[in-house]
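user: can you give me the structure for this one chain? tokens are fine.
assistant: on it. calling the predictor now.
[tool input]
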Amino acid sequence: MPINSFLYPGAKFVPGYEVANSCRFDGSSSYLTSGSFGTATSGTTWTFSLWVKRSEISSANYICGSYDGSRTNSLDLVYDAADTLSFYHGSNDGNGKLVKPARLFRDPSAWTHVVWSVDTTQGTAANRVKVYFNGAEDAKATATYPDEDAVAKLFADTNNKIGSQWNATSGTIFDGYMAEVVFIDGQALTPTSFGEYDEDSPTIWKPKDVSGLTFGNNGFYLDFEDSSALGNDVSGNNNDFSTSGLAATDQSTDSCTNNFCTLNPLKHNTTLSEGNLKCVTGTGTSQVATSTFAPNAGKWYWEVKVDTKTALMIGVADVDATLANSDWAASGGYYYYNTGVTYNNNSSSDYGDSWDDDDIIGVALDLDNNKIYFSKNGTFQNSGDPTSGATGTGAAFTLTGQYFPALSNGSSHSGATAQMNFGSPPYAISSGNADANGYGNFEYSVPSGYYSLCTKNLAEFG
């Protein structure tokens, strides 16, 4: 499948159309909802397009759902527990139809473009429902198509949701990020209406400006650029959605044109939420959550807001460690502990101030000189100077190897809670500081020469 250049560190960045924001859904209570927008342009022909980044793997997550009250005209787009994506059509013939592509979706670091294009007036059944990922039509593992001319209206009935099934029941709510959510009423479009290949590489798929499309009566375009109204439709139709469980802090700068680091649901033994930016440790030695990015060069900065300090350790973990308890804080990581000591592999030493709930710990990781520095509420500890280069003034320790940003409880305690800010925070920032490239939103100033962990910066420095 063609790749998206913004998913992977080291991919070449070519300037083009920029997507400023996405919406972060928490998997438990947040979604967008509406009733009917009115008379649809067509009940047989439409297109749904969005960019999506999953946070929860191997669990049911509904991207959207519509329902007319009788289940004969229900439509669902859902990741199932097997990590496939199902396109379900109820219709006026009373029989549900299911189209399921063969591919699996298990990459929590990746943004994917999804297009669901429907035209039931087509005489050939296979042409009535087409699904595309990153610009390419996908093979289907399961395909039962709607009858010819069957009415299956998306976003036209009494219950319409984005981020959940139509009734928003527990276990159906989406956990992850969505961007550039577009519904076209009355046309079955191909992906080229929403994206294009990079002119310098035929394998790179990227978004393009959709504002000039004809949206139809019930069409809409959600760009998530108004944090006070995340359901705001900017198509010109004013087909706005109401929010449930969403706040201004759920507007994210993690997008399909600049992908930010998060914690990794595939390599952790903790509880993750808030788009994999909030972590709660469990009971047992070295409960650990590691990140989706592990840079091997450059200088990087991130912040951690402490919610519950209990035995919390903040730092980096060896990329080669497993989730076995003994592999982490003691022997596979470099951490700043809440008592003020640091752990350098098996060795602990006095380092700086202790910290408490509501403190913000900054981490400055210098992989050009293999040093790491920690700050508490903006003040680097141990007389640390992240700009000191090879001399490592005040550095807690010298790194050897490649590391993930990480959190750990470090001992047999439970209940430590923290929120990661790699540049797109899940909590409110009172000041607002970006790196020198203008990326990230941090509480404290980013040290000179350090950058937030996002793909645009990684393409340049990582």
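assistant: here you go. The two ends are 25 Å apart (CA to CA). The helical segments are 455-461.
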